Amino acid sequence: MHKLLFLLVAMVWASGSFAQNKKFNKEEQAIVAVLLAQSDAWTKGDMEGYMAGYWQSDSLRFVGSRGITYGWKQTLENYKKGYPTPDHTGTLSFTVLHLEKTGKNNYVMLGKYNLERNVGPASGHFMLLWRKINGEWKVVIDHSS
Fold first, then answer.
1. Which end of the chain has less neighbouring CB within 10 Å, N or C?
2. Cβ atoms of 36 and 7 closer than 8 Å
3. Which long-range contacts (CB under 8 A, 24 or more apart) does 54-62 make?
4. What is the CATH classification number for the domain harbouring 107?
């Protein structure tokens, strides 16, 4: 498992998708692996797989252009409604600009997203609050614009 995680991080670094000259520690590598899995799931049109990186709780918060969405199920429904076909989902990539530990089981990540798709590209910035829950890193707050 650790070799696979290292390989994924190395591939991302080689492709220039993440901030250069940053060596991720073990916890950070685990977080980046979740983000990569989300990108892959999104690109395959697998919204449930994408949402596996989020805390499956009514306390999940997503902040976007339409305000705050509360809860995993509602966030999933919003994604399905906003990205109904492969022409809308396209290919998602992330650039991590900053990743900082903010508590024993918390990290804040700042970055950019890029979405190449048939209905037109989309891009913006995000701030994610990651929390280790039951041994897994999950997004508990997502502010994307």
1. N
2. no
3. 54/138, 54/139, 54/140, 54/142, 55/131, 55/133, 55/138, 55/139, 55/140, 56/138, 57/140, 59/140, 60/139, 60/140, 60/141, 61/140, 61/141, 61/142, 62/141, 62/142, 62/143, 62/144
4. 3.10.450.50
Q: How many domains does the chain fold into?
A: 1
The secondary structure element, H or E, covering residue 110 is strand 106-116
Task: State which residues of the chain have pLDDT below 50.
Answer: 1-21
Q: Is the CB of residue 42 less than 8 Å from the CB of residue 50? A: yes
65 burial type by CB count under 10 A (0-12 exposed, 13-18 middle, 19+ buried): exposed
Query: Nearest Cα to 18, choosing from 4, 39, 46, 47?
Result: 39
Q: Which domain, by its residues, includes 105? A: 2-144
Q: Helix, strand, coil % (nearest 5) of the chain?
A: 35, 35, 25
Which residue type occupies 14?
Answer: A
